[in-house]
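Instructor's aside before we start: the two examples that follow are unrelated to each other. I chose them only because their records fit on one page, so don't look for a connection. First example below.
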Amino acid sequence: MTTLQGTDTTFHHADEHHAPHGWRRWLFATNHKDIGTLYLWFSMIMFLSGGTLAMFIRAELFQPGLQFVYPEVFNQFTTMHGLIMVFGAIMPAFVGFGNWMIPLQIGASDMAFARMNNFSFWLLPPAAILLIASFFAGGGATAAGWTMYPPLSTQMGIGMDLAIFAIHIMGASSIMGAINIIVTILNMRAPGMALMKMPMFSWTWLFTAYLLIAVMPVLAAAVTMLLTDRHFGTYFYNAAGGGDPLLWQHIFWFFGHPEVYIMILPAFGIISEIVPAFSRKPLFGYASMVYAAGSIAIISFIVWAHHMFATGMPVTGQLFFMYATMLVAVPTGVKVFNWIATMWRGSLTFETPMLFSIGFIWVFTIGGFTGLILSVAPIDIQVHDTYYVVAHFHYVLVAGSLFALFAGFYYWAPKWTGHMYPERRGEFHFWNSLIWVNVTFFPMHFLGLAGMPRRYADYPTQFTDFNMVSSVGAFLFGLTQLYFLFFVVLPTIRGGVPAPAKPWEGADGLEWTVPSPAPFHTFEKPPVVK
């Protein structure tokens, strides 16, 4: 139990300290809450952009034949949907949560490097403009898939170059954000806030930040070599000049697999905050949860070639990466077990944050099991690049990361806005999201097992029924998220029932000791934790 000792609880904040107003507040923001808000709005805009592309994809796939777009434009949509969702929606959303909550959770006055925090955000809009503008460049956007494999990526038009520059800029933003989070957590915790007393969300973000610093330069090197292959006569990935197209896959996936955990570890942290609060019990096995998160981060570096079973690697390589991949299931299983054990015989209530958390545990476990199945090399070779893989990673990233983000929004929105969200609308959002996400992605398992390849605009007639079901589910899931924006988020920001400092009875932590909404300057005197 976190308690405060010797803390001045009379708050003298924004009015006395002249919080900035108008456009200057946002353009020159150095306050972690304002920057967190900017990240969250940016990710929402990109989520809607990437979601619109998903609607075009599912509309085209509603029935066989070419309905709306040529295959090359369809592949531009699939590629840009992936890039926008990964680099523009999911990652910045978690950085927004981290900016908002980490200083509040550890009793820090702000992030360690406030101006760098501002810079790391304002790199993102130009990068997003580059990505989206690539549709209007000569030859259109890149259509090489979000993984950008050569030789396709070396043959694309100028849209590929714009994507490379956008990824460079977003990577620089991620590295700066990660440095900020590490320094903040290690150096700015309140007196008495030992590392093993830190909230799980701060712990998972600490591991995530180390992962970002380790793998973002790897991606930068990969796309730089791609750029020089395209324009400066090098042959890194060109077999005709002594290069190797598979080199790209090794480098990309050495970034790409830790990237998956970059997008799920903060989600684990959010769920680990919410489940104890609504179970009215401490988190079961706190220390094991910390070690499990660290183990996941470490193991993520030795599994990259499970994306490459179909490339003809030796059997010994297949065995190593197969068993290493299966090993990830152990610490992940520890987390799922501990969440269930936390709920066991707890005094549970089922407000929207808890609903999304339980929904997350269920659907993420499905995604985890299909990942285990794909770790078996002979099976993976059969279903590689089919819709089975699409189903797997959407269960992890949509039903996983996105559900955790929704859970976190409903949990912390009262602290951010000073208003309680409309509970009935939140529940409506949850049930529709849960139903339609399964209607959308579960049939894709069957499509993949039957042999339907991904990234194709057309398909044989036998795949029609499942594609129709999937497309209907996708449209209804998309409409549900518009409902979330217009009937939950905006009304909560504008007004509603005033939120107390601690709206959730079982919630514990320093963020619930400050008023709602959190003041512009949070902890003028560091709280003392005992």
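Example two begins here.
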Amino acid sequence: MVKTFGSLKRLWSYLRLYKVGFFLAILCEVTATIVNALFPVLVGLPTTRIAQNIANKETIDFDYIVKILILITIMSVICNLGYFGSNALMSRVVQRSMRDLRRDISHKINRLPVSYFDSHQRGDILSRMTNDVDSLTNALQQSLLRIISATIGMTSAIFMMFKINTKLALLSMLMIPASVIISKVIVSKSQKYFKAQQDALGDLNSYVQENMTGFAVLKLFGREKENYENFKTTSHKLSEYGFKSSFISGLMMPLVQLTSYLVYIIVAVLGGLLVINKTITLGNLQAFIQYVWQLNQPMGQVTQLSAVIQGASASTKRIFTVLDEQEEPDAANLASLPATIQGAVTFEHVSFSYDPAKPLIEDLNFEVKPGQMVAIVGPTGAGKTTLINLLMRFYDVTGGAIKIDGLDTKQLKREEVRSLFGMVLQDAWLYHDTIMENIRFGKLDATDYEVVDAAKAANVDHFIRTMPEGYKMMIDEEADNVSLGQKQLLTIARTLLSDPKILILDEATSSVDTRLELLIQKAMQKVMEGRTSFVIAHRLSTIREADLILVMDQGQIIEQGTHEQLLARGGFYEKLYNSQFGEAEQSD
């Protein structure tokens, strides 16, 4: 209950920004509900007057009846205009509030550490940003005004019932505690299934995203049947939780309605006796029975919305769980980058581990001078990518310091540290836009001339001009309409345009053919000119000219030196090199 109240309070922090529209919507709803509460009394007046005319053997007073009908028509127009205005205003308030919530989620995602994405399924994160926000939006639009209307409607109906007859009103009140008890029991049983349903939906989104991304691989290995079975299992879990949550919450309305029907029958019988005894008039009995229905109607509305509200409650908790995640911390009193960066990088006694019980890097030391090309080699799992992650501050060191031009990177803002770097990865990333805009991503204020100049420097201009529409060609969502090598060259052009001080190349040529590898190497040489560069490579042929080669194994630098020095040493690097080129040299 405390968590639910806290979630509602935080939701109000978004709604209150548009409180003028919010309270106007409530005012319209209150006005319409109060007017609607007067209808039973007005409708009962002609009945009472006709009954009196007949009892007194008088002519039917049609003038009176017509006046009441005109008044009912006017009030009906006011009532419907009030409901229309409240719905229109509340929809506007909710949509703007949820826009702000989505914006905050997006900003939060950008501030979360890389470790969060390493430990959470991306499909589930996507589900929280889309499905959960949509669930909350629908609940606010459907239920907020209805709950307000139900509260006012029930209060008005109870007031009018007591005004007509206190005994019948007290009898009718029995349905309220009975309905509350029924609702509380059912909600306590169904809420866990609504939470499980939203979690299962996130799992399903993750599974679908993962398999759609690797669809070609699934087809290649003939894994369609296994994929279908796994999907069916995940989908069945969602279906099972969905059925249980809907079934249990669906019991609420018929049980609540049952109490209302019982009260209605009792009131009708006792009311008839009171009319016979002339304790109340026939018109008042008619009005009272309508008020019983007016009391029942809002209770029925709330029970109908039970599933929507419970689903939204589960979604709200999932959304705020993301918003409450710990962000990347920055130290206080941070230093600023100097106007000129030379690009010297120093690792001083650096230690790091993903798991405190399993140290990965311990007491790592090396120094890179400005403009040097540093190659990092070693077997899979040696710590090469981890070293780059530490350099970029995707993770912070647990001991020691990484310095750029003598400045400890932990004393600088993360965005300032990352602004110094350019990266070309093995998995080239392009987004759904034109080739021109994909290159311009490296420098958003770059002119078209600068973009073309970067493409020429990266040896990709010729490829682009042979494409349909050239620089204006749209890259599709999976970037499947350009080859892997072209994607690499486009990302190199993007990096060249950003003019980074320090360059990172993470196995940028490992997945292309020899001809494209030569083109990419030429492009990379232009990018690396005058810049400090870190190159992770499995193909040792690409790093022979490196100023410094770091050989890593199990998180430690076991050898370092130039290509010739390491070969002459006859250690781990020589074995690694000969395993790739020894046989080829012997055959020559």
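The chain has two domains: 2-323, 345-587.
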